[in-house]
Specification:
It is built from 18 helices and eleven strands. It is α/β, with parallel strands linked by helices and 511 residues long. It has two domains: 141 residues, DNAb Helicase, Chain A (Orthogonal Bundle); 218 residues, Rossmann fold (3-Layer(aba) Sandwich), CATH 3.40.50.
């Protein structure tokens, strides 16, 4: 029998040793920064906004920094003398040399000018160590093959950790001088002037709506609400298609591509599939009924128009995510990724009540739904400001509308209306009177005369003809402009809204 023997000690020297890499750190930068702050406490202000004790690779340095910060924020002086008692009482700090170590840090300082650079170096190395930790967790979790922790969930967790790491302790941001704000405001006015005064934001594609809103402004949260069958999704899809179709990129002064007109659109469809949404867009572009497309009842000419429209739309910068039960955190991560990869100028969410405040697939239950919706609306508003793009979120209305004679919605009809109304910059309602009139055809009562009934029926029929093929967009709140109402034409077959032209402005040949 052959027996396999382990290598002898003599051969160990021939076995290559595994390489060991120390986590990225820079002890000299940490010492230089601490010394600079000890010499001049004012230096702390250069790193106070983003640097935390946990960012130091050397735990002792982190504790020294924490003690310095504590004294400075109390309005006291932090130097080797005032910190001496701390070192005398802390055994862990005594191991690095006690109060004498502080004196050496202060004495070794050559200049405090580079303190900000030292702080950013320490912060960058901290992020690198965190990335290594996240990478290790991803690898270990993937090897574990836990049945209860699917690969998709692992990706969600990794994306969440990366997003939190990207946004924690950012070294940029802060106050902007009023001079810079004035320059930005003039740039917006210049953009509007170049567009012949049409809009300063992304155009919705509807003339009167743009006139009232001034376009869809960056950093704004716009709520588009309505009862079922009013056309919320149709209007949102029309706006998305109009903006994407009009997209014209231009390279800015910083070398980045920006939108001179139109927008790259990110559409989060939590209710409809991407295919259903695409069919609606194709129906609008081709003029072929979406219902016929779904049933396959299209003629040859209609199918050819459908194919031509699909070919023209393949390059349209409209991106659809139809993941159900998406969390606000996952939505934010995916929006950031889309902006990084393709650019992003407009976000549409259909619809708000289908989002989750916590991890995807989880909910707190109906008793906490109001609080959950509050977190969602705050998250959407924060996302609009962070990415500096308009966010349109569709919302359902309560059944209170159906109990009133006038079915036009009001702000109080918004579900969980307090937080939605408060966080939104614009609240718009979609209303189609034709929908309600068509379902309320007058019926003659037993004690009603035929003359009275005919008069009542005639008034109903006249009003039905007046509102046929139209819809209203009611702007109930606008933080930076007027409220009002816009009439649009609506084609139910293609679910398409368009600019309304009143009968008195149509040419005679039209009738």
């Amino acid at each position: 029998m052959d027996i396999a023997l382990s290598p002898s000690p003599a051969s160990w020297s021939e076995t290559p040793l595994p390489t060991y890499r120390t986590p990225p750190h820079n002890a000299e930068a940490e010492q230089a920064l601490l010394g600079a702050i000890l010499v001049n406490n004012g230096t702390y202000q250069r790193v106070a906004e983003f640097l935390l004790p946990d960012h130091f690779a050397d735990a002792a340095h982190g504790r020294i920094y924490a003690a310095i910060v504590k004294l400075i924020e109390r309005g006291q002086i932090a130097n080797p003398v005032t910190l001496k008692n701390l070192f005398d009482q802390d055994e862990a700090l005594a191991e690095v040399g006690g109060a004498q170590y502080l004196a050496r840090l202060a004495a070794s300082v050559v200049t405090i000018i580079n303190a900000g650079d030292y702080g950013r170096t320490i912060h960058d190395l901290y992020l690198r160590r965190q990335l290594i930790g996240i990478g290790d967790d991803v690898v270990n979790d993937a090897y574990a093959q836990d049945i209860d922790h699917a690969a998709g969930q692992q990706i969600q967790v990794a994306e969440k950790k990366l997003f939190e790491l990207a946004t924690a302790g950012q070294t940029d941001g802060g106050f902007k001088p009023f001079r810079q704000a004035i320059i930005d405001a003039v740039a917006l006015a210049e953009t509007a002037y170049k567009r012949s005064g049409k809009t300063t934001g992304v155009s919705s594609g509807f003339t009167e709506l743009d006139r009232l809103l001034g376009g869809l402004h960056p950093s704004d949260l716009l709520i588009l609400a309505g009862r079922p069958s009013m056309g919320k999704t149709a209007l949102a899809t029309n706006i998305a298609f109009n903006a994407a179709k009009a997209y014209r990129p231009v390279r800015g002064a910083d070398g980045r591509m920006t939108a001179e007109d139109g927008a790259v659109v990110g559409f989060f469809s939590l209710e409809m599939s991407a295919e259903q949404l695409a069919a609606r867009v194709l129906s609008e572009a081709s003029g072929v009924s979406s219902d016929k497309i779904r049933r396959g009842e299209v003629g040859r000419d209609e199918f050819e128009r459908f194919v031509v429209a699909s070919q023209e739309l393949t390059s349209t910068p409209l991106f659809i995510d139809d993941t159900p039960a998406l969390s606000i955190t996952a939505l934010r991560t995916r929006a950031r990724r889309l902006m990084r990869q393709q650019g992003l100028n407009l976000i549409i969410v259909d619809y708000l009540q289908l989002l989750m405040a916590g991890p995807s697939g989880s909910s707190r239950g109906p008793e906490n739904r109001v609080q959950e919706v509050s977190e969602i609306t705050r998250g959407l508003k924060a996302l609009a400001k962070e990415l500096n793009v308009p966010v349109i979120a569709l919302s359902q209305l309560s059944r209170a509308v159906e109990q009133r004679e006038d079915k036009r919605p009001m702000l109080s009809d918004l579900r969980e209306s307090g937080s939605i109304e408060q966080d939104a910059d614009v609240v718009m309602f979609v209303f189609r009177e034709e929908y309600y009139l068509g379902r309320s055809e007058p019926m003659r009562t037993p004690d009603e005369s035929s003359e009275k009934f005919n008069d009542r029926y005639e008034r109903w029929h006249t009003r039905l003809e007046e509102v046929h093929g139209t819809g209203e967009v009611i702007i109930a709140k606008q933080r930076h402009g007027p409220i009002g109402k816009v009439i649009l034409n609506f084609d139910g077959a293609t679910t398409k809204f368009s600019d309304h032209i009143s009968r008195d402005r149509l040419p005679d040949a039209h009738f």
